[in-house]
Amino acid sequence: MAIDTKELYEKIDELMGSDVVIQGWIRNHRKQKEFGFIDFSDGTCFRHVQVVYDDKLDNFLDIQKYRVGCAIEVLGEVVKSPKEGQEFEIQAKKVLLVGDCGEDYPIQPKRHTREFLREQAYLRPRTNLFQAVFRVRSVLAYAIHKYFQDRGYVYFHAPIITASDCEGAGEMFHVTSFDLDKVPVVDGEVDYSKDMFGKATSLTVSGQLEAETFAQAYKKTYTFGPTFRAEHSNTKVHANEFWMIEPEISFCDLEGDMEIMEDMLKYVVSYVLKHCPDEMKFFDQFVEKELLKKLDKLVHSKFSRVTHKEAIDILQKADVKWEFEPKQGEDIAKEHEKYLTEYFDGPVFITDWPKDIKAFYMKQNPDGETVAAVDLEVPGAGEIMGGSQREEDYDKLVRRIDELGMDKEELAWYINLRKYGTTPHSGFGLGFERLLIYVTGVENIRDVIPYPRTPGNCDV
Ligand code: 4AD
Ligand code: MG
């Protein structure tokens, strides 16, 4: 039976001197006249294994023809390696070709640009960088589930197809079963009553509203699923399809919400540092200088807190030529986020946002101007989380929905939660890819999602 190289590394003391079978791919191949070295990886761990073979093997000449990318099976003895920094190598007794690889294989053992690899998205997990990124993605997803499950949260699957626009930004992808060449129209308007669901529907931008229904039943719940935004933002941190984690907690105010945001972020970062040491060392060495120092600091620091008003004050006093002048009552631009995270030298919570630039469901503060909302800004990824205390007061919520001219009927179920045992409650959304950008140092969202969907790009 073949052994995973992960296990081989874990049990190396025990396995030294014995024969093993390994199955994987050739990453590099150096040939000499009487012997050869195969840089071998099976993907079960970040580290590769060196396979050494010589001309005593009967298929020696065939082996020398095995190209980078070939799938092989090796039977060999685990021996101490003379090479510095390498614990062991496999002295091959048999090397079998499992799957040949064409000469035109694009992933050769040399430095490829990330742009080039984006065009080869289906092959890029075979490179060191993407091996590391997507394993960390997997481990981080597990850490998030573990954090919430260990604390008694119920995992809630929010619907993907929905009739409500949670963020009210109108950035939704329509879902229809109409033949788009023959859309039924009545009085110049599309007749959605004839569509699959009898009404206009879209892909969800957030599972929050539905998660609130579960929070009112289970006290603590969270979603972790794909969300979709039809925005034409061609930035390094926006995608049209991204994954979001959205906890929702009853009997919890904004203060409690921020405590969970901070605690969870520290937990998942520590988890990855502990469980992906090789990958994290690689990022630190080749992707972001001092990444480990940054993350270690995060784990041991207390996050800074400012109100939106204070943040704008800081920005206005800064000696910087802004592209967008910071103004009270207005949103915070990318350049402002960057300045603030540098100013506070780490993650910073910005609270109490102007109500007019935030969503309808946020709890209105007594000043009548701001809402109990919070964004967490981090160096590099910018806004990584956004949350708020929710408006639990029936009348205030209805008034806000009316002010914004939203459809009350479509939201009746949501509004009714305030009628049937309402509680103060809060939650937040963590952009999973933004978290990955922060944790790996890989700065473009296109490089932390396996098959990115961004404007003009939907390959594979
Ligand atoms: O700030 P947003 O829009 O908040 C919500 O959707 C709330 N319903 C969350 C909640 O309170 N339950 O999105 C939340 C997070 C952002 O902070 C950001 O990290 C990420 O989702 N995000 C994106 N990530 C990648 N591409 C995009 N286009 C994103 N838009 C938001
Ligand atoms: Mg936001």
What keywords describe this structure?
single chain, 460 residues, alpha+beta, eight-stranded mixed beta sheet, five-stranded mixed β-barrel, 14 helices, binds 4-amino-1,4-dioxobutan-2-aminium adenosine-5'-monophosphate, binds magnesium ion
Number of E strands: 18
Main β-sheet description: 8 strands, mixed
Rg, rounded, reads: 27 Å
The ligands bound in this entry are:
4-amino-1,4-dioxobutan-2-aminium adenosine-5'-monophosphate, magnesium ion
* CA distance, first residue to last residue: 34 Å
Uncertain stretches: none
Structure description:
The chain is an alpha+beta fold. Helix content is 30%, strand content 25%. Helix 5 crosses helix 8 and helix 7 (254-275) crosses helix 9 (291-300). It starts with a helix and ends in a 20-residue tail after the last helix. The relative contact order is 0.11. The model has no long low-confidence stretch (mean pLDDT 96).
What's the structural blueprint in terms of helices and strands?
Layout: H1 5-10, H2 12-15, E1 19-31, E2 35-41, E3 49-54, H3 60-63, E4 71-80, E5 88-99, H4 114-119, H5 128-150, E6 154-155, E7 161-162, E8 174-175, E9 185-186, E10 189-190, E11 201-203, H6 208-218, E12 220-228, E13 241-250, H7 254-275, H8 277-286, H9 291-300, E14 304-307, H10 308-317, H11 334-343, E15 348-354, E16 370-378, E17 382-389, H12 394-403, H13 412-416, E18 425-431, H14 432-440
Parallel strand pairs: 3-5, 6-12, 14-15
Antiparallel strand pairs: 1-2, 1-4, 2-3, 4-5, 7-11, 8-11, 9-10, 12-13, 13-18, 15-16, 16-17, 17-18
Helix pairs in contact: 5-7, 5-8, 7-9
This protein binds 4-amino-1,4-dioxobutan-2-aminium adenosine-5'-monophosphate (4AD) and magnesium ion.
